Amino acid sequence: MSALDYNNIPSHIAIIMDGNGRWAKEQGKDRLFGHASGVEAVRDTLKTAKEFGVKFLTLYAFSTENWSRPQKEIDGLMNLLIDAITSELDSLDNNGVRLMTIGDINGLPENCKHSIEKAIEKTKNNTGITLVLAINYSARIEIARAFHFILLNKKNISTAQITPELIANYLYTNAIPDPELLIRTSGENRVSNFMLWQIAYTEFHFTNIYWPEFRREHLLAAIIDYQKRERRFGKTSEQIV
Ligand code: IPE
Ligand code: IPE
Ligand code: MG
To answer: DSSP E strands: which ranges in 64-202?
Structure first.
């Protein structure tokens, strides 16, 4: 762990948890076994992130495009979400985890929505780490939705008033800083409609590890990789101290 700089831990890490299905297939198991096994990776990653002082951990759990999967897999994922949130709720709460979501939870099955709302309510005053679950999430819909709300709330808005800051205020993430680090597992090097607005200056870390196998050492390796980057934000290297 000597390579880790404790003074340069990203405050927000976002993860595209990918590879559950391929991991399960390689063991001759059902895709749902892969999703269920991914819960342990979530537990370990959340624990490690909190231990190292990460303030926001955003996990991409279900995209709007994932509704195109076989119904059996969708049902399994929704049930897994309910089971995981219900069984982990006390532990999350006792460990100072605040749960939030981004995405349209109104579009989820009623029992799923209910367990999420209950967990959000119970953990709302916790300050240890914020776990942001992206569920029924699409970045393009998030941006379109921001414009819908801007027009509804500000009927006579002028074009000059439409600024990046205003748009950001109407995104699901209005109270969350942009992620400094985005991790995607399973060897896929794409963004898949995730946080398109928020990742304007995010550092990307791609790993071949399948999500169910992702553990503490992989998160720390991603943070160490991040710490090697020079974040220039458009400036020259010489301007950065
Ligand atoms: C990620 O694993 C979980 C979700 C998208 C819900 P996948 O289910 O996409 O696994 P692969 O990509 O098929 O291996
Ligand atoms: C992205 O993974 C969505 C989640 C991790 C929830 P997918 O497996 O759905 O992405 P694509 O379809 O391979 O791009
Ligand atoms: Mg996938």
So the answer is: 97-102, 129-137, 181-184
Residue 69 is classified by DSSP as: S
Structural domain boundaries of the chain? 12-137+178-227
Q: What is the pLDDT of residue 241?
A: 80
DSSP helix/strand/coil, 3: coil
What is the distance between the alpha carbons of residues 20 and 198, in angstroms, rounded to a whole number?
25
- What is the whole-number distance in angstroms between the Cα of residue 192 and the centre of ligand 2? 6
Tokens of 146: 């921001």
The edge-to-edge listing of strands for the beta sheet with 56-63 is 97-102, 129-137, 56-63, 12-16, 181-184, 203-206
- Ligand 1 center to residue 66 CA distance, Å? 9
Class of domain 12-137+178-227: alpha beta
Sign of the Cα pseudo-torsion (182, 197, 67, 49, in order): positive
Ligand approaching nearest to the C-alpha of 183: 2
Ligand 2 atom having least distance to the Cα of 17:
5
Strands 181-184 and 203-206: parallel
Supply the pTM of this predicted model. Answer: 0.98
Ligand that lies nearest to the alpha carbon of residue 209, given by its number in the listed order: 1
Q: From the CB of residue 161, how many other CB atoms can be counted at a distance below 10 Å?
A: 10
pLDDT less than 50: residues of the chain: none
Instruction: Report the alpha-carbon distance of residue 218 to residue 215 in Å, rounded.
Output: 5
Residue 110 to residue 15: CA distance in whole angstroms: 26
* 206 bridge partner residues: 184
> What sign does the CA torsion over 215, 75, 135, 131 have?
negative
